[in-house]
């Protein structure tokens, strides 16, 4: 169950000629693919582009009606390899995944693809989430495009530009025989707007028809001596063809006056930020009409020397707006100026920071600084001041008033008890070398658990511990999620451990979904899926590649059993790889499925029980060990009115989902027995209401009796 459903929105994909589409960028991209006669689409989920895969999945019936093949690929590498269908056949294909990690995973297939070249249009849509909103290391897709010679599009973030880039991307690919990458930033993915639609087109040649008439051309096989000819073909044929197409079809855009003595050259994805900064300086209006010349690079690779020199000529200074580092575009443009003996002064990273996201304030400060230096007459007297007055209130230093709060597991997450159990094991056996992996469980590296200190790639948690797996006083522990297991872990980590006879412990966290990327189904998902094959056992898979010591636990909230299995794995005499598969459903997905049903049942008058947990304030010792071992967001502190008890006690707030982890942890760690469970009954029967009334009356009598016997020191 994905975190967002587009079942209703995808019906807009059926719009025909001249109708108006309104919606998000990811839906516009999908509509553009159908309008362009795409023959097959695929990809791998991953934020922020993950919702594009969700859109495609929800639109699978519409794709099927047009004869379009849809594949939810096992990894980015599998998705990129799918584009092989466009090498020999004139079929348009598109795949999508996250950049730059997705591009890294897919690099082998992508490099072979661009070496061979394509007959049909091949489009790779990469989600570039560079900046503070990203969940990955800070890298760019741009250098890969340069290295392997993909043409790289970076469209302006509005729906007409996005739709046009999809069509032009296919045409550019076909005109140059080269696959094209289209970079969509998170603002592009989720920007909303409108555009005029065209009817969807069936692919001129479907993959079914191509399968019936196979083609091959040995010159496209990536083997010597063909590879040497392919490299020459890139330079002598494909590159000039791409430059001609970009120039003749005006893929890059120009805005503002041609005779402005200063200019700004920018990536297409930076357009809205640049125009907003100019608006705040009084140099652009609400419609985007700029008083400064703008050269918008909707194609950031290759760069066109002819087009660039024509823009720069006659200008005293030009600012390059290039988010990220190194400054590839700025260096290339500077080289072109030098070769043409052009005297225009080029600026970029001297005004912009070398690294980091170009937020609104960063953009404003850099653009203002450039114009203040290069064309001060365009600014007001106040704006020309080196430290121009700022009407905004000062930004408070929140570090002084807001405590540090690292990200963590959701309330009720079944992974939390796993790491509570591991903490208990380490308390008994000592600390161990523990590697993590990409996924929700990586939050265990942060407080309160502080378990696992490295992550080297999706599915590579056990492989990253390989140097420690030769045997020693203590065994290494590697943690791997079910998504990473099916992505790359089965072969690169588990198979590697078996082959090398690693004396290690591998903990596979199975929450039934690819939870970290939005809750999509994977082979081991327990739910039925009409178009995918699920319910495949992880334990059977690891046994299939040679693991002999395997333990399964299907209820991770049983902290005591979880602790005992982990202890057994760390102390057994067996010397090969030991795999523990810990399974419980992701609570977030479970609540997405069950909460609407529960609320509907309550609304319809059905009797429904909801478990809730609480803390007995009279028993709680106030040492807060339960919080340090559980870390549940619903477990907090409460100050008592009792003057004899200074320390706050533990308290469970209304966000509790009734998983019971807090009580299990307290029991397994032999903490104070202050946790209790109560069942909240909605729409109780008449007998239950009557019985509850008797119980409450009896409790009040006992409370009154106790109060009368209590000594009162407040009276004289």
Detailed description of the structure:
The structure is a single chain. The N and C termini lie far apart (about 65 Å). It contains 25 helices and 23 strands. Helix 1 crosses helix 2 (about 50-60) and helix 4 (about 75-80) packs parallel to helix 7. The mean pLDDT is about 90. With about 725 residues, it is of the alpha/beta class. It folds into four domains: about 10-250, Thiamin diphosphate (ThDP)-binding fold, Pyr/PP domains (Rossmann fold); about 255-385, Rossmann fold; about 415-525 and about 535-590, Rossmann fold, CATH 3.40.50.970; about 605-705, 2-Layer Sandwich (Alpha-Beta Plaits). About 35% of the residues lie in helices and about 15% in strands. The strands form six sheets. The protein has a seven-stranded mixed β-sheet, sandwiched between helices. A five-stranded mixed β-sheet has the order 9-11-10-13-14, with helices on both faces. The longest helix has 24 residues, at about 685-710.
């Amino acid at each position: 169950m994905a975190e967002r459903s587009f079942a209703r929105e995808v019906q807009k994909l059926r719009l025909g000629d001249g109708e108006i589409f309104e919606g998000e960028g990811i839906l516009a991209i999908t509509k553009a693919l159908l309008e362009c006669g795409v023959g097959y689409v695929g990809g791998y989920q991953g934020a922020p582009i993950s919702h594009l895969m969700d859109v495609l999945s929800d639109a699978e019936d519409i794709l099927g009606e047009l004869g379009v093949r849809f594949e939810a690929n096992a990894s980015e590498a599998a998705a990129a390899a799918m584009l092989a269908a466009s090498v020999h056949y004139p079929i348009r294909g598109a795949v999508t995944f996250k950049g730059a990690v997705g591009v890294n995973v897919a690099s082998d297939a992508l490099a072979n693809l661009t070496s061979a070249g394509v007959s049909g249009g091949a489009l790779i849509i990469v989600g570039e989430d560079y900046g503070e909103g990203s969940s990955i290391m800070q890298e760019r897709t741009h250098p890969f495009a340069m290295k392997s010679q993909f043409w790289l599009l970076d469209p302006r973030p509005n729906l007409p530009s996005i739709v046009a880039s999809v069509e032009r991307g296919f045409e550019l690919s076909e005109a140059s025989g080269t696959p094209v990458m289209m970079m969509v930033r998170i603002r592009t993915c989720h920007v909303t707007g409108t555009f005029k639609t065209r009817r969807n087109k069936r692919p001129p040649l479907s993959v079914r028809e191509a399968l019936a008439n196979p083609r091959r051309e040995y010159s496209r096989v990536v083997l010597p001596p063909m590879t040497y000819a392919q490299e020459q073909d890139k330079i002598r044929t494909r590159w000039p063809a791409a430059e001609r197409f970009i120039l003749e079809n005006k893929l890059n855009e120009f805005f503002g006056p041609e005779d402005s003595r200063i200019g700004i050259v920018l990536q297409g994805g930076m357009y809205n930020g640049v125009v907003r900064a100019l608006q705040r300086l009084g140099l652009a209006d609400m419609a985007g009409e700029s008083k400064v010349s703008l050269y918008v690079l909707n194609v950031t690779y290759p760069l066109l020397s002819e087009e660039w020199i024509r823009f720069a000529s006659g200008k005293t200074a030009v600012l390059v707006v290039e988010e990220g580092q190194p400054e590839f575009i700025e260096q290339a443009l500077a080289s072109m100026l030098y070769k043409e003996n052009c005297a225009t002064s080029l600026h970029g990273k001297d005004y912009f920071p070398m690294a980091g996201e170009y937020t609104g304030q960063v953009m404003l400060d850099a653009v203002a600084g450039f114009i203040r230096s290069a064309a001060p007459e365009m600014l007001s007297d106040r704006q020309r001041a080196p430290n121009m007055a700022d009407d905004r209130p000062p930004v408070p230093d929140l570090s002084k008033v807001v405590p540090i709060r690292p990200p963590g597991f959701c309330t009720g997450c079944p992974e939390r008890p796993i790491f509570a159990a591991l903490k208990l094991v380490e308390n008994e056996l000592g600390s161990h070398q523990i590697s993590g992996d990409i996924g929700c469980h990586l939050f265990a590296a942060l407080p309160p658990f502080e378990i696992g200190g490295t992550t080297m790639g999706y599915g590579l948690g056990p492989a990253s511990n390989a140097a420690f797996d030769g045997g020693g006083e203590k065994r290494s522990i590697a943690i791997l999620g079910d998504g990473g297991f099916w992505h790359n872990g089965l072969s690169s980590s588990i198979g590697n451990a078996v082959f090398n006879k690693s004396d290690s412990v591998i903990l596979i966290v199975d929450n039934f979904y690819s939870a970290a990327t939005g809750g999509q189904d994977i082979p081991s998902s327990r739910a039925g899926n009409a178009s995918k094959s699920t319910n495949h056992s992880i334990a059977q898979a690891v046994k299939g590649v040679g693991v002999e010591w395997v333990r399964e636990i299907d209820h991770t909230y049983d902290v005591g059993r979880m602790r005992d299995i982990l202890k057994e794995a760390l102390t057994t005499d067996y010397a090969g790889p030991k795999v523990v598969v810990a399974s419980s459903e992701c609570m977030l997905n479970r609540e997405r499925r069950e909460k609407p049903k529960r609320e509907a049942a309550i609304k319809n008058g059905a009797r429904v029980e909801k478990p809730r947990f609480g803390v007995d304030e009279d028993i709680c010792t106030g040492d807060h060990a339960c919080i340090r071992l559980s870390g549940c967001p619903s477990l907090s502190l409460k100050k008592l009115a009792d003057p004899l008890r200074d320390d706050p006690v533990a308290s469970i707030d209304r966000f509790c989902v009734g998983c019971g982890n807090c009580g299990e942890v307290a029991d397994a760690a032999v903490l104070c027995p202050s946790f209790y469970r109560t069942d909240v009954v909605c729409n109780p029967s008449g007998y239950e209401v009557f019985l509850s009334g008797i119980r409450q009356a009896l409790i009040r009598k006992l409370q009154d009796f106790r109060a009368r016997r209590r000594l009162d020191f407040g009276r004289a």
